[in-house]
Write a structure and sequence with these properties.
The complex is a heterotrimer of chains A (422), B (160) and C (189).
Chain A: H1 10-17, H2 29-33, E1 37-41, E2 53-59, E3 62-69, H3 77-81, H4 90-94, H5 101-116, H6 122-150, H7 155-175, E4 184-185, E5 188-189, H8 197-219, H9 223-229, H10 237-242, H11 248-251, H12 259-262, H13 283-310, H14 327-330, H15 334-345, E6 354-361, E7 364-371, E8 380-384, H16 386-392, H17 394-398, H18 403-413, H19 417-421
Antiparallel strand pairs in A: 1-2, 2-3, 4-5, 6-7, 7-8
Helix pairs in contact in A: 5-6, 6-7, 6-13, 6-18, 7-8, 8-13, 13-18
Chain B: H1 17-27, H2 38-47, E1 70-74, H3 82-91, E2 97-101, H4 103-107, E3 128-130, H5 137-152
Parallel strand pairs in B: 1-2, 2-3
Chain C: H1 9-17, E1 21-27, E2 30-35, H2 40-49, E3 57-65, E4 87-95, E5 100-108, E6 114-116, H3 125-136, E7 139-141, H4 177-181
Parallel strand pairs in C: 2-5, 6-7
Antiparallel strand pairs in C: 1-2, 3-4, 4-5
Classes of the chains: A mainly alpha (422), B alpha/beta (160), C alpha/beta (189).
Chain lengths: 422, 160, 189
């Protein structure tokens, strides 16, 4: 096993310590001569939303250049996925973007379904939409709380987590786990919704819009909030596109691009909702968009819950080569036992070919590239994750702003380091 | 605390130095504001309104290790992050305690591969391990109370 | 504003680049074109800018390793996939105007794998290429920042190659407990 070894020579020692030479060309010449200051921010810093390290070049308080250093949470998930069969690999994907594990499950499950050419029954799709939109709300609630704390509004976190606990309670109802639910699986979902789920979510949908109004009352017209957010971290639409931003960070610049509308999956084309857009591409617009997305998610959830009561039928594919039979069938059908045994020991074969499938997570486009081997394990799985792209665009967003604006900018693009490093 | 009620309203409390110090240490054990991965979100949940860690005198997170008593390693520890965590631990002033929160920090969890340190006890001493992926806030509270018990049973002879 | 009619990317690339277009395949509705590795940046630049194509966004770059023996065989059309070299690098590009995706693929050899950088076309390629250089060991010529991205600076090897071990620690049983305990000097009872 390859591990880090101590430096063997003087040259290696220099590289180990990290001297300025390797930064030549990445920071300005003034930093090499010591005219501007190089400041290390992170990986342990309260406002970097995890273990992000930023090397900032400062001229006084002004950011001249910014070099993000990631990988402090590189978990080797993609490599581990190559060692597991398709179904068993699913729980690992939960832990990439740990604020919205459902979206990761969906990205992976939808990609596997595409590779296998597997259809999902309608009820399964409706349950998926419910989960994805709840996950969007839960993720945005953490974003709201932490972003507000970064900017000095301490109490918003307490309000936001109050509602998040209710959403996590609903996830627990569905899957038995609060956060890492592994609920959305290739072919559908793990099991049907429980009897007490519908009354709970209806109560939540009834209460939540008023809570969103509360958050807005705390922040939207707050002069301190506006001062810190408006005109900060501006990114122009063409620059945002060139850097590949997606999700609220792109829509904040006014680009109308939402995969739920543009390339619908899981029946999103049948729901009536709007895509909120910003104008200025600054921190404040990105904040407004996410607040609006709460309301749009409520719209989708109301329709989906209504549909959940109406649409009956199977919640996962009936194709027994890929989806396990019901527990109740096991006692009655020998064939079901064989399928069950085969699926939980070997798994299933997928074609030796490649697919790429993308969905809209709370942060943006999360894409999954799978290359099969013809056997039960993939040759390569790669996730295109929004946080990775957004962190790579931090230098262009932060250039010319003050050091104190940096935390506002980091908060506004809503990064998750597990999502970035994988 | 052996409060003697026989003394009436004289306002005298009798106890031992051991008990008084341990009481103080458990009553205001400030954790380091530090999170690694998924467990950090559950740690935030326990800080927030529903679970409210301030009931145990822990509402104050210190961002600097110099002022912190408790390091909660919340999440998977990568080989790139390991030197940083060790340095944070070294910077903390004695007495200091470590809680390893979650499976990944305790033993590597589901990530048995090249990137993850298989248990934070490879680099720093751990007082309490909490199982779960991620542990529920109740489990974290239980872990903290277990640590309090451990601290209360410390002896003056062992301090030096 | 009049939007020009969408063009077929395959015929457009064949028209401009001729022999550099090596292979075309479609799987599950996804179009893949394989182009000559040396011309990859030019092809991407063309696909981004040409009227009727406008693949304006780089969604992802992912590399795949065909180690140990799934590459290099003679391509016989129907039976096998087109895999002349060990490493395949897939550029997933997206046209927002025409709402379609395209995968452009280039192959790099086992020994000293090199590709021209796409950072001149999209700045988004910067980190995506750095990640591949770190994880797969493919050098992108002309890339402005050749440091490692995810792994520590002093790491040996490229973890996402198929011949790199997963590096797992064995499960502790009574017979090997002492061996595993050695790695955990601070674990006490």
């Amino acid at each position: 096993m390859a591990v880090a070894t101590p430096p063997q020579s003087i040259e290696e020692q220099r590289r180990w310590e990290g001297n300025l030479d390797q930064l030549r060309g990445l920071v300005s010449e003034r930093a090499i001569t010591g005219e501007t200051m190089l400041l290390n921010m992170g990986p342990h810093h309260p406002s970097t939303h995890g273990v992000l390290r930023l090397l900032l070049e400062l001229d006084g308080e002004q950011i001249v250049s910014c070099l993000p250093d990631v990988g402090f949470l590189h978990t080797g998930i993609e490599k581990s996925l190559e060692d597991k069969s398709y179904e068993k690999a699913l729980p690992l994907t939960d832990r990439m973007d740990y604020l919205s594990p459902m979206s990761n499950n969906m990205a992976y499950a939808a990609a596997v379904e595409k590779l296998l050419d597997l259809d999902v029954p309608e009820r399964g799709q409706v349950i998926r939409v419910v989960c994805l939109e709840l996950a969007r709300c839960a993720s945005h609630l953490v974003w709201l709380g932490t972003h507000a704390i970064d900017m000095g509004a301490m109490s918003v976190l307490l309000y936001a987590f109050r509602e998040r606990e209710r959403i996590l309670g609903m996830f627990e109802m569905l899957s038995g786990q609060r956060m890492m639910s592994s609920y959305i699986r290739p072919g559908g979902v793990w099991r049907d919704v429980t009897d007490d789920f519908l009354p709970t979510i209806k109560q939540f949908l009834n209460d939540f819009p008023a809570k969103v109004d509360d958050y807005e009352a705390l922040l939207t017209q707050n002069p301190i909030w506006k001062d810190r957010a408006q005109g900060v971290g501006v990114i122009e639409p063409d620059v945002a596109l060139a850097y590949g931003l997606t999700g609220p960070a792109l829509r904040g610049s006014g680009v109308n691009w939402d995969l739920r509308k543009a390339q619908p999956y899981s029946g999103y084309e049948t729901y009536d909702f709007n895509v909120p857009l910003g104008e200025h591409g600054d921190v404040y617009d990105r904040y407004l968009i996410r607040i609006q997305e709460f309301r749009e998610s409520m719209k989708i959830l109301n329709q989906a819950v209504e549909r959940l009561e109406r649409v009956k039928g199977p919640y996962r594919s009936e194709n027994r080569k890929y989806c396990p039979p019901l527990r109740s069938e096991l006692g009655q059908s020998m064939e079901a036992v064989i399928h069950h045994f085969k699926l939980w020991t070997y798994g299933y074969d997928a074609p030796d070919d490649e697919i790429y499938n993308a969905i809209e997570s709370p942060r943006g486009e999360i894409g999954c590239y799978i290359h099969g081997t013809g056997a039960n394990k993939p040759r390569r799985v790669h996730f295109k994750t929004p946080s990775f792209i957004h962190i790579s665009a931090l230098p262009v967003m932060s250039k010319g702003y003050l050091l104190a604006d940096m935390v506002a900018i980091i908060g506004s693009v809503d990064i998750v380091l597990g999502d970035c490093d994988r | 605390m052996g409060v003697s009620s026989k003394l009436g309203n004289m306002g005298v409390v009798t106890t031992t130095v051991e008990q008084a110090v341990n009481w103080a240490r458990t009553g205001a054990m400030w954790p380091l504001l530090f999170g690694l991965a998924c467990c950090a979100i559950e740690y935030m949940s326990s800080q927030a309104s529903s679970y409210d860690l301030s009931r145990f005198g822990m509402e104050l997170n210190r961002a600097t290790p110099r002022q912190a008593d408790l390091l909660i390693v919340s999440g998977r520890l990568t080989r790139k992050m390991a030197p940083v965590v060790r340095q944070l631990y070294d910077q903390m002033a004695e007495p200091k305690w470590v809680i390893s929160m979650g499976d990944c920090a305790s033993c590597g969890g589901v990530y048995n591969n090249y990137a993850i340190v298989q248990g934070v006890d490879e680099i720093i001493p751990v007082d309490v391990y909490i199982a779960g992926c991620p542990p529920r806030p109740e489990q974290l509270l239980h872990g903290i109370l277990t640590l309090h018990e451990k601290v209360r049973s410390e002896r003056i002879a062992d301090w030096a | 504003m009049e939007i020009p009619a969408a063009k077929d990317p395959v015929s457009a690339v064949r028209e401009v680049f001729g022999d550099a277009l090596l292979h075309v395949k479609e799987f599950r509705g996804e179009l893949t074109i394989v182009v000559d590795a040396e011309r990859i940046a030019d092809v991407l630049d063309f696909l981004r800018g040409a009227s009727g194509l406008v693949f304006n966004m780089l969604s992802d770059i992912s590399a795949v390793d065909y180690y140990p023996n799934d590459y290099g065989d003679a391509f016989d059309g129907e039976e096998s996939d087109y895999r002349p070299e060990r490493f395949g690098v897939c550029y997933h590009i997206l046209s927002m105007l025409y709402n379609r995706r395209l995968r452009v693929k280039a192959f790099a050899a086992d020994e000293d794998p090199r590709l021209p950088t796409a950072t001149v076309v999209w700045p988004a390629a910067n980190w995506l290429e750095r990640e591949i250089a770190d994880m797969m060991g493919i050098v992108f010529e002309g890339h402005p920042d050749q440091r490692r991205l995810l792994m520590p600076e002093d790491w040996h090897g490229h973890p996402h190659r198929r011949d790199y071990p997963l590096g797992k620690e064995t499960v502790a049983f009574s017979f090997n407990e002492a061996e595993i305990r050695k790695h955990k000097p601070f674990a006490t009872d």
